[in-house]
Amino acid sequence: MVKIKRFALFSLILCQFLMMIVLSGCQDKKELSELSIVLGVGIDKYQDNYLLTVELANPEAPDNLGTSKTFSVYGSTIDEAKEKIPFLVEKEMFWGHMQIIAIGKSAVPSLYEISEYFYLDKQTAPAPFIVFAEDNSAEELLNSEFGQAQYFSFGLAEALKKLSKNNVMFTSSVGEMLENMIDNKSILLPVASITSITDEESQKQQTAITGYRAFLCSEL
Amino acid sequence: MAVILKDKNKQDQFSFSVDKNIAAIKSSMDCDMDVVIRSFRLGNGQKAAVFFIDNLVSKHILGRDFFDPLMKAAEEDKWTATKLKEQVLRMGSVKPVYTIPELISAVLQGLTGLLIEGEKCALIVEAVDWPQRSVQEPATDVVIRGPREGFIESMRSNVALLRRKIHHVDLKIEQVCLGRYSQTYIGIVYIKSIVNKDVLAELKQRLKRIDIDAILDSGYIEQLVQDTPYSIFPTIGIAEKPDIAAARILEGRVAVLIDGSPIVLTIPMLFGEGLQCSEDYFTRFYYASWIRIIRVIAYFVTIWLPAIFVAVVSYQQRIIPVKLFLSMAAAEADTPFPVGLALLLIMIAYEILREAGVRLPKPAGQAVSIVGAIVMGDAAVSAGLISAPVLIVLAITVISSFVTTAFIDSSTLLRLIFLLVAWSMGLFGLLIASMIMIMYLCSLESFGVPYFAPFAPLSWQGLKDVVVRFPLWQLKFRPRELSLNRRRMGNHIRSGEHQ
Predict the structure, then answer these.
(1) Confidence band of B384 (pLDDT split at 50, 70, 90)
(2) CA distance B410 to B206
(3) Which residue, A54, A85, A220, B228, shows the most beta carbons closer than 10 Å to its own?
């Protein structure tokens, strides 16, 4: 009986050990210092080509969260544009903490394709906020500043989160927006626009949340 | 118990002549500088000799209660051993021995032998007095509320400390002698009416099998009698204070006292014991339960925190909140080592510092700690060798390890294993490794008692005194695994119900 028990225990431990080796993916290991963290994405469309603008966090020192950099690339599809970005930066792209998807006015007709792409893309964070750049392009928006935040997308997302929590503003995630579009319902997006104020230090333009814009699905 | 110096034969027997007996003793053992054999005459002129080891006996007691009455004893023409024992010697403990090896063995333990002309036996009297430490508070198991006395190296004193806690007639102390050369006395202490007889029999059996040159500390016995010698978990409990040992004996355990060791072993050990502290029972149960929960958290923190940190930072970055993720990324930006390697190196550095601090004299140890703290804490971060989050994780882990001192050895090794698994296989690997650990814990036994009780096998009564501590009046039963005589209190009336 003791021998059977020992054999069972040994077999169980062996199975677990094999599972550990076979199923775990050490190839998925990513060092923090080797990651380029994508915080926000802006999408514009010019003559059937997408202009994808990404805001990358550039953390520097322990006492300083660092600054952000933006890169813009063209592609016939979002995926094609996205695949070009790694050629511009030395580190591996990390999309897991993407906070914002800014949609330029020119990209509104492709809102369904955009939301479907980001909804199905498993690399990106599950629920980034979507904002509509009504008076500017998404590229301009991502190159501006939001209040005193070090990262534009992070600052904007935090502000939207706060407004949504206090029931001041309605926000929707990619999934919710896609669901509304499939059900032929209207969708409501927060609008962010560049204001006339310019930051003296960085000489960058300031962005503010200016209101809502409702879209009827028939318009899209 | 007797030392077998030579085969028991006629030469081992005493003769009627003191001189012949002295010659026999001298032929049986080399009389070193500290061996004293002195002939003298009793008050009636009868020849006698005293045999003892210098510095192990009190010369004051010998002079007052031994030599003085013996040299004045002139009432009888011929004194016999029995008459001397009954009428002359003033010592409390006097007993006859009938062979020379028995006499030598007793003398080597610190007793004094008396040889009398015309008697085929010797008397053993007790006038022991050797240098020993006074009863002090031990370095570990320090309490704010509760008894402060700790065990010392003398087994006799330790037995006395236990006797002072449990006055009942059922408290039994059995003595065995182990070690070919050390001839160390081992005391087996238990309460006859409570103890688990199977455990006691098994312990005696295992002790009997020990055949080793010397037993220099309780650690020898611990390693030689434990169920799973290759286990990293301790399966034999230790106690440095009589109140802890007494409490465990009262639960049905057996205490093993080793002469020369201030650490008492308690058998069997359950995993939950490592989470308990004597002070839990001296404070109110709300606070005691809260502290127990803190201890459980600290145990998990000390074995899992570095592993979880490495797994999350290297594999599951998405579960870290963005703000924390950004500040961690900022901290890690300039460090040359991967997080796992940095944590491993800093853990090794800490172990070296700890070992150096423990072994060195106190003032030097403190200096090492300060240098280590400055070098590791400040310079390494400033130089960009390691990041501040790694250092914080190490600090929390190390501080947590001191909360459950019973598991400090095993948790150090487990921490290292889990760290390596998490570094190479992420959270999934960590989960599987943890499952293996729990399965292994469930399979362990301590003297036939399931080590992981009362979790596995589950016992609701037992759970009342592991992660939380129920009020004393609800702890009516001893742990099921430890004693068959389970009820430990009557139908106690809670305080407040007396009116």
Answers:
(1) confident
(2) 24
(3) A54
